Amino acid sequence: MTSPANRRLTRDTRHRVLGGVCAGLARRYGLSATGLRVAFVVSCILPGPQFIAYLVLWVLMPADDSY
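RESULT FIELD:
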């Protein structure tokens, strides 16, 4: 098993809810995917480009189809 620091940043297509961005970020950095999703939803209440950043990451991050 590779450590989180050695994994590529890819969208997790197996554990995705919407696009797999939060699951991919959580897997890459060794975080809880659920906690990262909750933090993202809470941050969307604040002003800023969070949702646009999510969409950009969804487009730019390659899908991890190695399952």
